[in-house]
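Tutorial handout. Part one gives the primary structure; part two gives the three-dimensional structure as C-alpha coordinates.
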Amino acid sequence: MTWTRLTPLALLFALLPGTTACVCPPWVCGWEDERPFLRDGDDDDRRDDDDDRGDDDDAGDDDDAAGAALDALSFVMTFDATAAPGDDDDSATDSVTEITGTLITRYWADIDREDLICEQHVSFDGEARFEGAPDCEACTGFLQLRASSIADISNPLIDSDHCDPATANARGLNFGPRLLTPAGVGGLGDFLSIALLDAETGIESGLTFAPTEGLSYSEQAEGLAEDGVVLTHGGYLRSTPDGLVEGAGIDQAAATPDAQSDWFAFWRIFRNPGANPFDGPELEGTYGAQSVWIVFPR
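Part two.
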Protein backbone atom coordinates (compact mmCIF):
# COMPACT_ATOMS: atom_id res chain seq x y z
CA MET A 1 0.00 0.00 0.00
CA THR A 2 1.42 3.39 -0.94
CA TRP A 3 1.57 6.36 1.36
CA THR A 4 -0.71 8.27 -1.02
CA ARG A 5 -3.44 5.72 -0.40
CA LEU A 6 -2.92 6.14 3.34
CA THR A 7 -3.93 9.80 3.24
CA PRO A 8 -5.14 11.33 5.54
CA LEU A 9 -3.20 9.00 7.83
CA ALA A 10 0.04 9.53 5.94
CA LEU A 11 2.80 10.04 8.53
CA LEU A 12 4.35 13.36 7.72
CA PHE A 13 7.32 14.48 9.78
CA ALA A 14 8.75 17.93 10.11
CA LEU A 15 11.77 19.01 12.08
CA LEU A 16 12.74 22.04 10.03
CA PRO A 17 10.82 25.36 9.96
CA GLY A 18 8.37 25.85 7.13
CA THR A 19 7.17 22.26 6.80
CA THR A 20 3.52 21.24 7.09
CA ALA A 21 3.46 18.66 9.86
CA CYS A 22 5.43 18.00 12.99
CA VAL A 23 7.23 15.45 15.09
CA CYS A 24 9.15 15.83 18.28
CA PRO A 25 10.85 13.54 20.78
CA PRO A 26 8.74 12.90 23.88
CA TRP A 27 11.40 14.16 26.25
CA VAL A 28 11.72 17.43 24.28
CA CYS A 29 7.93 17.85 24.15
CA GLY A 30 7.85 17.35 27.90
CA TRP A 31 5.50 14.38 27.65
CA GLU A 32 6.07 12.81 31.05
CA ASP A 33 3.68 9.88 30.57
CA GLU A 34 6.04 8.22 28.11
CA ARG A 35 9.12 8.11 30.34
CA PRO A 36 10.74 4.67 30.46
CA PHE A 37 9.63 2.14 33.05
CA LEU A 38 7.42 4.72 34.76
CA ARG A 39 4.22 3.95 32.86
CA ASP A 40 2.93 1.02 34.91
CA GLY A 41 -0.81 1.61 34.67
CA ASP A 42 -1.30 2.37 38.36
CA ASP A 43 -0.06 5.92 38.83
CA ASP A 44 -2.22 8.92 39.60
CA ASP A 45 -1.78 10.41 36.13
CA ARG A 46 -3.57 7.63 34.27
CA ARG A 47 -7.11 7.89 33.04
CA ASP A 48 -8.48 5.31 35.46
CA ASP A 49 -8.04 7.66 38.42
CA ASP A 50 -10.14 10.55 39.71
CA ASP A 51 -8.49 13.37 37.77
CA ASP A 52 -9.71 15.06 34.61
CA ARG A 53 -8.80 12.07 32.45
CA GLY A 54 -10.62 9.34 34.37
CA ASP A 55 -14.07 8.27 33.31
CA ASP A 56 -15.52 11.67 32.40
CA ASP A 57 -16.82 12.71 29.01
CA ASP A 58 -13.35 13.67 27.79
CA ALA A 59 -11.56 10.49 28.80
CA GLY A 60 -9.93 8.07 26.40
CA ASP A 61 -12.01 5.05 27.43
CA ASP A 62 -15.53 6.43 26.90
CA ASP A 63 -17.80 6.67 23.90
CA ASP A 64 -16.18 9.90 22.70
CA ALA A 65 -12.77 8.26 22.42
CA ALA A 66 -14.18 5.33 20.49
CA GLY A 67 -14.69 7.61 17.51
CA ALA A 68 -11.94 10.13 18.26
CA ALA A 69 -9.72 11.37 15.48
CA LEU A 70 -6.09 10.28 15.64
CA ASP A 71 -3.83 13.12 16.75
CA ALA A 72 -0.53 11.30 17.28
CA LEU A 73 1.27 7.96 17.40
CA SER A 74 4.07 6.73 19.61
CA PHE A 75 5.88 3.41 19.86
CA VAL A 76 7.38 1.44 22.73
CA MET A 77 8.91 -2.03 22.85
CA THR A 78 9.81 -4.39 25.62
CA PHE A 79 11.83 -7.51 24.89
CA ASP A 80 13.92 -10.27 26.38
CA ALA A 81 17.21 -11.35 24.85
CA THR A 82 18.59 -14.84 25.47
CA ALA A 83 21.68 -16.46 23.99
CA ALA A 84 20.64 -19.34 21.76
CA PRO A 85 21.48 -22.76 23.24
CA GLY A 86 23.96 -25.11 21.65
CA ASP A 87 26.52 -22.49 20.63
CA ASP A 88 29.92 -23.74 21.76
CA ASP A 89 31.72 -20.64 20.48
CA ASP A 90 32.83 -18.52 23.43
CA SER A 91 32.63 -15.33 21.38
CA ALA A 92 29.32 -13.54 22.01
CA THR A 93 29.73 -11.55 18.82
CA ASP A 94 29.56 -14.77 16.76
CA SER A 95 26.47 -16.15 18.48
CA VAL A 96 22.75 -15.79 17.86
CA THR A 97 20.61 -14.15 20.51
CA GLU A 98 16.93 -15.06 20.58
CA ILE A 99 14.49 -12.17 21.04
CA THR A 100 10.90 -12.27 22.32
CA GLY A 101 8.93 -9.14 22.99
CA THR A 102 5.97 -6.85 22.50
CA LEU A 103 5.51 -3.77 20.35
CA ILE A 104 3.14 -1.24 21.90
CA THR A 105 1.64 1.31 19.54
CA ARG A 106 -0.14 4.14 21.33
CA TYR A 107 -2.87 6.05 19.51
CA TRP A 108 -3.55 9.51 20.94
CA ALA A 109 -6.71 11.59 20.51
CA ASP A 110 -4.98 14.62 22.04
CA ILE A 111 -1.35 14.24 22.93
CA ASP A 112 -1.12 17.60 24.69
CA ARG A 113 -3.79 16.45 27.15
CA GLU A 114 -2.41 12.90 27.18
CA ASP A 115 -5.80 11.68 25.97
CA LEU A 116 -5.21 8.08 24.88
CA ILE A 117 -7.55 6.40 22.39
CA CYS A 118 -6.00 3.00 23.02
CA GLU A 119 -2.75 1.08 22.81
CA GLN A 120 -2.14 -1.93 20.58
CA HIS A 121 0.06 -4.76 21.84
CA VAL A 122 1.66 -6.99 19.22
CA SER A 123 3.93 -9.85 20.26
CA PHE A 124 6.93 -10.90 18.20
CA ASP A 125 10.08 -12.98 18.24
CA GLY A 126 13.29 -12.79 16.28
CA GLU A 127 17.04 -12.92 16.63
CA ALA A 128 19.95 -10.58 17.09
CA ARG A 129 23.54 -10.86 15.91
CA PHE A 130 26.47 -8.67 16.78
CA GLU A 131 28.59 -8.74 13.64
CA GLY A 132 27.47 -5.40 12.22
CA ALA A 133 24.44 -4.79 10.03
CA PRO A 134 23.76 -4.93 6.27
CA ASP A 135 25.04 -1.82 4.46
CA CYS A 136 26.08 -0.18 7.72
CA GLU A 137 29.80 -0.24 8.46
CA ALA A 138 29.42 1.69 11.69
CA CYS A 139 26.68 -0.52 13.16
CA THR A 140 27.62 -3.05 15.82
CA GLY A 141 24.57 -5.33 15.70
CA PHE A 142 21.43 -6.29 13.87
CA LEU A 143 17.97 -7.26 15.10
CA GLN A 144 15.73 -9.24 12.73
CA LEU A 145 12.13 -9.85 13.80
CA ARG A 146 10.03 -12.65 12.31
CA ALA A 147 6.87 -11.51 10.54
CA SER A 148 5.44 -15.01 10.91
CA SER A 149 5.57 -14.69 14.70
CA ILE A 150 3.47 -11.58 15.22
CA ALA A 151 0.12 -11.66 17.01
CA ASP A 152 -2.15 -8.91 18.28
CA ILE A 153 -2.43 -9.72 21.97
CA SER A 154 -4.36 -6.60 22.97
CA ASN A 155 -7.10 -7.45 25.44
CA PRO A 156 -9.40 -4.64 26.61
CA LEU A 157 -11.07 -7.03 29.05
CA ILE A 158 -7.83 -7.20 31.01
CA ASP A 159 -6.70 -3.61 30.51
CA SER A 160 -9.13 -0.92 29.35
CA ASP A 161 -6.23 0.95 27.71
CA HIS A 162 -5.87 -1.83 25.14
CA CYS A 163 -7.35 -1.50 21.67
CA ASP A 164 -10.10 -3.93 20.75
CA PRO A 165 -8.60 -6.21 18.05
CA ALA A 166 -12.09 -6.78 16.65
CA THR A 167 -12.52 -3.12 15.74
CA ALA A 168 -9.02 -1.59 15.61
CA ASN A 169 -8.36 -2.46 11.98
CA ALA A 170 -11.67 -0.97 10.81
CA ARG A 171 -10.86 2.22 12.70
CA GLY A 172 -7.43 2.47 11.06
CA LEU A 173 -5.64 1.69 14.33
CA ASN A 174 -3.49 -1.01 12.77
CA PHE A 175 -0.02 0.47 12.45
CA GLY A 176 1.51 -2.01 14.92
CA PRO A 177 0.80 -5.14 12.87
CA ARG A 178 1.52 -3.40 9.56
CA LEU A 179 4.95 -2.20 10.69
CA LEU A 180 5.77 -5.84 11.51
CA THR A 181 4.34 -7.17 8.23
CA PRO A 182 6.44 -7.10 5.03
CA ALA A 183 5.66 -4.63 2.29
CA GLY A 184 3.81 -6.28 -0.58
CA VAL A 185 1.56 -8.36 1.65
CA GLY A 186 -0.40 -5.54 3.23
CA GLY A 187 2.32 -4.23 5.50
CA LEU A 188 4.98 -1.58 5.77
CA GLY A 189 7.70 -3.76 7.29
CA ASP A 190 9.79 -0.97 8.77
CA PHE A 191 10.15 -2.53 12.23
CA LEU A 192 11.22 -5.99 11.05
CA SER A 193 14.89 -5.03 10.62
CA ILE A 194 16.67 -2.84 13.16
CA ALA A 195 20.34 -1.97 12.93
CA LEU A 196 22.02 -1.50 16.31
CA LEU A 197 24.76 0.77 17.55
CA ASP A 198 25.89 0.27 21.13
CA ALA A 199 25.71 3.37 23.31
CA GLU A 200 29.38 3.32 24.29
CA THR A 201 30.38 3.56 20.63
CA GLY A 202 27.77 6.25 20.01
CA ILE A 203 28.97 8.34 22.92
CA GLU A 204 32.68 7.95 22.12
CA SER A 205 32.01 8.84 18.47
CA GLY A 206 29.93 11.90 19.37
CA LEU A 207 26.89 10.60 17.48
CA THR A 208 23.34 11.92 17.68
CA PHE A 209 19.83 10.58 17.20
CA ALA A 210 19.03 13.80 15.33
CA PRO A 211 20.97 17.02 14.67
CA THR A 212 19.10 18.85 17.41
CA GLU A 213 20.08 19.98 20.88
CA GLY A 214 19.41 17.30 23.47
CA LEU A 215 19.48 14.38 21.04
CA SER A 216 23.09 13.30 21.23
CA TYR A 217 23.93 9.86 22.61
CA SER A 218 25.65 11.43 25.60
CA GLU A 219 22.73 13.74 26.41
CA GLN A 220 20.24 10.91 26.08
CA ALA A 221 22.35 8.68 28.31
CA GLU A 222 22.42 11.40 30.95
CA GLY A 223 18.68 11.96 30.71
CA LEU A 224 17.86 8.28 31.00
CA ALA A 225 20.22 7.94 33.95
CA GLU A 226 18.10 10.49 35.80
CA ASP A 227 15.17 8.10 35.32
CA GLY A 228 17.21 5.21 36.71
CA VAL A 229 17.79 3.38 33.43
CA VAL A 230 20.83 2.91 31.19
CA LEU A 231 21.00 3.71 27.48
CA THR A 232 22.44 0.61 25.80
CA HIS A 233 21.86 1.05 22.06
CA GLY A 234 20.46 3.19 19.33
CA GLY A 235 18.12 1.41 16.91
CA TYR A 236 18.02 2.40 13.24
CA LEU A 237 15.42 1.76 10.54
CA ARG A 238 16.28 1.34 6.88
CA SER A 239 14.90 3.72 4.28
CA THR A 240 12.91 1.69 1.74
CA PRO A 241 10.43 2.69 -0.99
CA ASP A 242 6.87 3.12 0.28
CA GLY A 243 7.95 2.46 3.87
CA LEU A 244 7.49 4.64 6.92
CA VAL A 245 11.03 6.01 6.89
CA GLU A 246 10.92 7.34 3.35
CA GLY A 247 7.21 8.04 3.12
CA ALA A 248 7.09 9.84 6.46
CA GLY A 249 10.28 11.78 5.92
CA ILE A 250 12.22 10.30 8.82
CA ASP A 251 15.22 10.28 6.50
CA GLN A 252 14.97 14.07 6.46
CA ALA A 253 14.92 14.43 10.25
CA ALA A 254 16.92 11.62 11.84
CA ALA A 255 20.65 11.07 12.06
CA THR A 256 22.50 8.06 10.64
CA PRO A 257 25.31 5.99 12.17
CA ASP A 258 27.60 7.09 9.32
CA ALA A 259 27.46 9.42 6.35
CA GLN A 260 26.86 6.65 3.80
CA SER A 261 24.13 4.72 5.61
CA ASP A 262 20.48 4.35 4.62
CA TRP A 263 19.65 3.57 8.25
CA PHE A 264 18.04 6.32 10.32
CA ALA A 265 17.73 6.71 14.10
CA PHE A 266 14.37 5.65 15.45
CA TRP A 267 14.76 3.72 18.72
CA ARG A 268 16.60 4.38 21.94
CA ILE A 269 17.09 1.11 23.78
CA PHE A 270 17.69 0.92 27.51
CA ARG A 271 17.78 -1.42 30.50
CA ASN A 272 16.88 -1.10 34.15
CA PRO A 273 20.07 -2.09 35.99
CA GLY A 274 18.03 -3.36 38.91
CA ALA A 275 16.26 -5.84 36.64
CA ASN A 276 19.07 -6.43 34.14
CA PRO A 277 22.67 -6.05 35.34
CA PHE A 278 24.20 -7.12 32.00
CA ASP A 279 26.67 -4.49 30.80
CA GLY A 280 28.02 -5.00 27.30
CA PRO A 281 27.60 -4.15 23.63
CA GLU A 282 25.42 -7.23 23.04
CA LEU A 283 21.89 -7.84 24.29
CA GLU A 284 21.13 -10.11 27.21
CA GLY A 285 18.20 -9.91 29.61
CA THR A 286 15.23 -7.53 29.61
CA TYR A 287 15.16 -4.23 27.69
CA GLY A 288 12.84 -1.39 26.85
CA ALA A 289 12.86 0.69 23.69
CA GLN A 290 11.17 3.97 22.92
CA SER A 291 10.65 5.68 19.59
CA VAL A 292 12.73 8.81 19.19
CA TRP A 293 9.79 10.42 17.43
CA ILE A 294 6.19 11.20 18.29
CA VAL A 295 4.29 11.10 14.98
CA PHE A 296 1.55 13.56 14.13
CA PRO A 297 -0.60 12.28 11.25
CA ARG A 298 -1.94 14.77 8.73
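Part three, for discussion. The first strand starts at residue 23 and ends at 24. The mean pLDDT is 78.
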